[in-house]
Amino acid sequence: MEPDLETSVVDWAIDFPQTVRVFEELQIEYCCGGKSLEYACQQRGLDPSDVLEQLRRSIRAESGDQC
Asked: Is the pTM of this model over 0.85?
């Protein structure tokens, strides 16, 4: 299953460690709690769809899949 906006931030970080850099750049707490990505983005005033795309790009870049 591909993670999405409802996936907890901590699950993103555990399952896809390459996303940690994105969380750090956006100052999204990723090490504790079970907040969904969407909720965490809203708390930081970020567009959840934009953050989701950044995370997916970081995963593709790490895997070498540029499509």
From this structure: yes
